Amino acid sequence: MDAVATPDIILKLSNIESYYGPIMAIRGISLEVPRGRIVTLLGANGAGKTTVLKTISGILDPQKGAIEFMGKSIQRMEADRIVRLGLSHVPEGREVFPFLSVRENLMMGAYPRNDRNGVAEDLERVYGYFPRLKERINQPAGQLSGGEQQMLAIGRALMNRPTLLLLDEPSLGLSPILVKEIFAIIRRVNEEQGMSILLVEQNAKVALETAHYGYVLEIGRIVMNDSCDRLMHSKDIQEFYLGAKEAGARGERRWKKKKTWR
Ligand SMILES: Nc1ncnc2c1ncn2[C@@H]1O[C@H](COP(=O)(O)OP(=O)(O)OP(=O)(O)O)[C@@H](O)[C@H]1O
Ligand SMILES: [Mg+2]
User: Fold this and answer.
1) Per-residue pLDDT tens for 218-252?
2) Minimal CA–CA distance to 150: which of 127, 178, 125?
3) Domain span at 262
4) Is 251 close to ligand 1, i.e. is its CB under 6 Å away?
5) What is the pTM of this model?
6) Is 1 exposed, middle or buried (0-12, 13-18, 19+ CB in 10 A)?
7) Minimum-distance ligand 1 atom for the alpha carbon of 47
8) Residue 63 lies in a domain
9) Is 217 part of any domain?
10) What is the distance between the alpha carbons of residues 262 and 255, in angstroms, rounded to a whole number?
11) Does residue 103 fall inside a structural domain?
């Protein structure tokens, strides 16, 4: 990997270590997101994917290492300031405001902005991406289906018009058709708005088809990184993450588990 920082690097993590109390969850991670690219972070349950995103967005402070966003050091910055710099995080499990309407949820995403025209424009853009949200504009978010809540969570993050979007397992608990729909939107957002995206996924197939570059995380460490084309053809990835029988069964189990949980 080319480790030289250039203005074209939107996000750069250098040797990040993060802990939960005494437990070391991230064990020295370095990665980069270039401008206008989709980068994916793959790994099994408990590998540390969510922890990496939490560390980037300031929910968790790293014990060691450096994080640069647009050339600015953010590893000691409060989460709210990081959002205002243009970095939005769609957390695992969506976390929409259940008692607020769809529209109110979306407007919450625009709270750092005061360009009213731009906000109105982005609201229409989000409704364009997700027409189903427009149909449910006044409905409390808690009454939406899981897939619609995922759309709302992504839409709310887009309302900040971020330079970098962090997505934590957007496929979780969704039917295969909805997964296709959501990932097509993720690609459109990247292509139409040039938005850089760091995509955490356990569904390696869809992530590798969507992203340009990928990192594989195992027990808090990066064990592989390459273009998605090359990762897709790598023997290890095929065996451990794309094994047709295995991966299918795993995905199916997760989907079922999530469906009953909802
Ligand atoms: N709040 C917490 N307190 C203590 N340990 C935690 C906490 N959150 C996560 N961990 C531990 O940190 C490690 C990494 O967890 P993380 O949630 O980042 O994994 P993940 O790759 O996102 O997994 P998944 O695919 O299941 O979402 C795991 O061993 C987990 O048990
Ligand atoms: Mg996770």
Assistant:
1) 999 999 999 999 999 998 888 888 764 444 444 44
2) 178
3) 1-86+200-262
4) no
5) 0.90
6) exposed
7) 21
8) yes
9) yes
10) 11
11) no
